[in-house]
TrEMBL record, chains A, B:
Upper lineage: Bacteria, Pseudomonadati, Bacteroidota, Chitinophagia, Chitinophagales
Gene3D superfamilies in the cross-refs: Jelly Rolls
Pfam (any one): cNMP_binding
Entries under InterPro entries matching the protein: cNMP-bd_dom, cNMP-bd_dom_sf, RmlC-like_jellyroll
Domain Cyclic nucleotide-binding, chain residue ranges per copy: 11-114
Protein name: CRP-like cAMP-binding protein
Amino acid sequence: MSHPLRTHIEAVSKLTDEEFDHILSHFTPVKLKKHSSLVREGDLVKHEYFVLKGCLRSYITDNTGKEFTYQFAVETWWISEREAFMKHTPASTAIECLEDCQLLALSYEDREKLGRELWKYEHYLAVKSNMGYVALQKRLQLMIMGSAKERFENFVHQYPHLYNRIPKTHIASYLGVSRETISRLYRK
Amino acid sequence: MSHPLRTHIEAVSKLTDEEFDHILSHFTPVKLKKHSSLVREGDLVKHEYFVLKGCLRSYITDNTGKEFTYQFAVETWWISEREAFMKHTPASTAIECLEDCQLLALSYEDREKLGRELWKYEHYLAVKSNMGYVALQKRLQLMIMGSAKERFENFVHQYPHLYNRIPKTHIASYLGVSRETISRLYRK
């Protein structure tokens, strides 16, 4: 069976065994326990992470203690505090493990190096980022135009493997609905 | 003075004169009058556009006639229906000219060709897309956590050259606030 990272890259560009081995040699394995932090607010973020196993979320907390969940990540997804990672600024969002996690970490320097050495990797980054942008636009649109019910139904439809895996309270803060509303929607 | 497209690309990667001339030779000039459509819902979208002069917006209309503005574009910004352009599917958002516009059009095939021929162009695409993703994440966060007032103030702060150039009604549909609210915010 192909390595999950290889499968993910090859959805964009086919690789030779040598190319994939070269790419993989730049990644470092990371193991984290459930409830531990991958990134804290204010951290410098030197890596991005490919998820081999487990589930994480990135979120911010406003000054009233209210949380907003930016993103979830499960197997074969990437996660980082992207702005801090790209611009070398302190993290404004935090990332925590919702389960025990096995990740592959890639440093900013190695990411740039791989992109320079291997056009296919740079192309993979461009395509991945574009698809992420399109998905985020849809989410924004649904947030503005969709009801709480429509947002929840869309989430269940888009991520059928997630809505029973992730605590309801985090799904509520991802969809921008109250906990009461999310509980009502789950009961239906 | 450097060509605005060259300045935009060189914010990421320096180009030789030959490289820039080669890139520019793939673009086609487009002139459009105020109020005309660049993309209609259902169109196939074969180009993305770099704005030389003028102002555009992309938007969708829901089945109650309510509009949501996805994006504005003015001089040196890019605009397209990105999902339709990347995936070759019919457009689900429309793009209209809010002023007389001069654009440079690049086809999907030429975009891919330039990216393959010139690593710097592929890198520019990856960086541009990443920065767009980060900006969109912030907008989403503000939409969920910020009040109408905070969203408006952030818009004015971020785009001081836009809020008196674009009709209030479109800024309202970009920020997800009512026309009454936007008028009240402008009066302050």
